[in-house]
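Supplementary Methods S3. Complex input for the 5-S-methyl-5-thio-alpha-D-ribofuranose-bound model.
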Amino acid sequence: MTQYHPLNEQEAIAIARNISGIFAAEGELSCREIGDGNLNLVFHVSQPSTGASVIVKQALPYAKVVGESWPLSLDRARIEGEALIIQDRLAPGLVPTVHQVDHDLAFTVMEDLSSHVIMRQGLIEGGVYPLFAEHISDFLAQTLFFTSDLGMSQQEKKLLSRSFVNPDLCKITEDLIFDHPYTNADTNSFDAHLQGEAERLWADAGLHLEVALLREKFLTHAQALLHGDLHTGSIFITEQSTKVIDPEFAYFGPIGFDIGAVIANLLLHYAGQEHWSADAKARAERRRYLTDTVRDIWIAFDRKFRALWQEHGTDRIAKTVGYEDDYMRRLLQDTAGFAGAKVVRRIVGLAHVADIDKIPDPAVRSKAQRMALAIGTALIKRNRQITSIEQIIEIADSVSEA
Ligand code: SR1
Ligand code: MG
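Predicted complex, serialized as structure tokens:
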């Protein structure tokens, strides 16, 4: 057994060299630590003479974004590796190939996706991804249906869920998404001009009731194996290809949490158009592209999930007339509520998004932040009344046109 320690670049090279079938035996390897996320080390190991490369991702025993005062279990590296293997089986081609998982050193060696761009950055640069809705709805429908009680043996699901008990990472979500934004917490971080908006969030009892109900679902509703952190920074993309990465927050939770994460990040980018679009016409077109994508994702997800249910549904009682429609209505409502919570946390909570924070002009940034907060709080407050994806889009459009 190797004692855990943070890897250095030479050790990452030695690990990568051991993976068979990637690098030529002769030929130097070079390595750069490229991790820019909140939690992990990420080494890019490449062989200039052949162009071959892999990623060695290692968990640190604390949250990198905060420091050693916030310890985190290394078990998340095992969870990430095992989630990727399940997702690859259920949604082939939509996650990176895993070459090796090491539990002692808490690293995963995986396919290098440098030919892709992180979707958040791609969107900021004006990228259009015509296959994204098709790909991400495949990923969501396949991974969520086949790990739910609808699509797998209910006994096997209970046994599988033991491998995805993820208390430290769930605690991050419980605090940073479902608690801290709604109180004057030390972890919160927001521009001074948002003080009044933040105080209104902290005082809004009706909003808190909806957040409490969503939080209860996150805590108790073990519906399917979630990715758990499916924002646009967890997606590598090109016009032809989509790869979902980083499922270290994976656990058995409510399906709408994953769908809501994707939609929330498209809506954050929608709010960011105050800056990223050149003029009013371009802004309206870009926003239309984003809301079309939101619509396409839900409609394709709904169709694919229902088709899987019809073809692979495991039991008789789940085929009771009316149950499928009721289930899908509740998924859409959860999607709206979780999307709202994920928008709000990115404006006033600990971890923000470049779509908003990289807006240089404070007045424009403030407008985008207020818009995001208005969209997020409306989605949270109205989630239990939502019956159609059009209502989610109308909320965003009515805020941006106000
Ligand atoms: C302390 S970690 C902050 C955030 O980064 C991750 O990507 C998750 O979204 C988490 O909430
Ligand atoms: Mg991540």
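Residues 37, 229, 234, 246 surround magnesium ion (ligand 2) (CB under 6 Å). The chain has two domains: 9-111, 117-400.
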